[in-house]
Design goal:
Helix content is about 25%, strand content about 20%. A hairpin with a 5-residue loop joins strand 12 and strand 13. The protein is an alpha/beta fold and about 350 residues long. The structure holds guanosine-5'-triphosphate, magnesium ion (MG) and zinc ion. The site of magnesium ion has 5 residues, from helix 5.
Length: about 350
């Protein structure tokens, strides 16, 4: 394997992140990812981030002349950042992935059951980060058609692309491959919905570990234990992630939340007050649309719950220097991808 020469400086792509170390794919002819240590200075500058580097980051690499180790010396500017808030004694931001073209929320019906609360939060966070998002409903072989059709209607109605698939039967795989082709995407969702199974169908050579849901629940562990970026033979790259349980958007000012529910943003233009938060104000067009069944109650419920949560964290007016999202993301929603 060609080695990076001592002191040589190059750039690379982060494909996996651990606490102190990550794996990078240096630009150039090397076929395999290599381990790289994170320079200590990156931790000093990390602010509210637990770990300062994310899968998908472009980085500047150097070789430590003493040890010969590959070192991540700097993180190159990001075009976007998908992150979440980690609640605890001190609020922290967990970086999930950087430089994405698409967030794919994967869900299913059965085991585990569909969670509209989780789906809405992930879709909101993608929008706030300025990243287009899509919904993939896996395990269509398990039935539950009526419930699935209602969910499809809800999210297509909001403006999201929705695909259905069965990794077990090999259905919807070509459509998913088309969605991922030539993009950098992340698959995100509850443990056991079949993220790794879908990727193995798209590209059997990946050989990702999958496991029966009841067994992984009993052991209390996810089958996929770290996020990893894989290059796709069809073009593009995809990040397989460990299942998520709770998702809290990071840095989202409460009064901006209404802009990240596409249908609320659309209908909310007709509210009497331009800053209407759609929770009982007079002349609220969203309330009228709810009554007429033009907006599903589940979407408005998850909006109100998330709004209250954001207010309790960031106060009624939101964070003063919201750090996530980038200027292009603020107040403007990303366009849905073609599919
Ligand atoms: N019936 C059915 N089962 C599926 C389907 N896709 C995946 N499974 C099963 O669901 C279980 C979990 O699949 P995984 O691919 O490991 O799920 P995951 O989302 O990667 O889970 P984590 O890595 O823990 O986040 C496995 O037993 C799969 O065989 C499907 O389309 N239909
Ligand atoms: Mg997995
Ligand atoms: Zn309103």
């Amino acid at each position: 394997m060609a080695m990076v020469e001592s002191r040589e400086v190059r750039e690379g792509l982060v494909v996996r992140v651990d606490a102190r170390q990550c794996e990078v794919r240096p630009d150039g002819p090397e076929p395999a990812p290599r381990p790289a240590r994170l320079r200590g200075r990156l931790f000093e500058q990390r602010g509210e981030d637990r770990i300062p580097v994310a899968v998908g980051d472009r980085v500047r690499l150097e070789v430590d002349p003493a040890s010969g180790e590959l070192v991540v010396a700097a993180i190159l500017p990001r075009r976007n950042l998908f992150a979440r808030r980690v609640a605890g004694e001190d609020e922290r931001r967990q970086l999930l992935a950087a430089n994405l073209d698409l967030v794919v929320h994967v869900a299913c019906f059965g085991t585990p059951p569909f969670s509209s609360v989780l789906a809405d939060r992930v879709l909101v966070a993608a929008s706030f980060a300025g990243i287009p998002a899509a919904l993939v409903l896996n395990k269509t072989d398990l039935g539950r058609k009526r419930r699935m059709e209602r969910v499809i209607e809800t999210y297509r109605g909001a403006g999201y692309p929705v695909l259905t698939a069965s990794a077990k039967r090999g259905e919807g795989i070509e459509e998913l491959q088309e969605l991922l082709r030539d993009r950098t995407s992340i698959l995100y969702g509850l443990s056991g919905v079949g993220k790794s199974s879908l990727l193995n169908r798209i590209e059997p050579g990946l050989g990702l570990r999958t496991r029966e849901v009841s067994r992984s629940l009993r052991s209390g562990r996810h089958t996929t234990t770290f996020a990893q970026l894989h290059l796709l033979a069809c073009g593009g790259a995809v990040i397989d992630t460990p299942g998520v349980r709770v998702f809290r958007p990071y840095g989202l000012p409460p009064h901006e939340l209404r802009l990240h529910y596409p249908e609320l943003a659309r209908i909310g233009r007709d509210c009497r007050f331009p800053d209407c938060l759609h929770r009982g104000e007079p002349g609220c067009a969203v309330a009228a649309a709810l009554e007429q069944g033009r907006i599903p109650a589940s979407r408005h419920r998850s909006y109100l719950e998330l709004l209250a949560e954001l207010e309790s964290v960031y106060g009624g007016t939101g964070p003063t220097d919201a750090p996530v999202g980038g200027p292009e993301a603020r107040g403007s929603r990303p366009k849905p991808p073609r599919c």
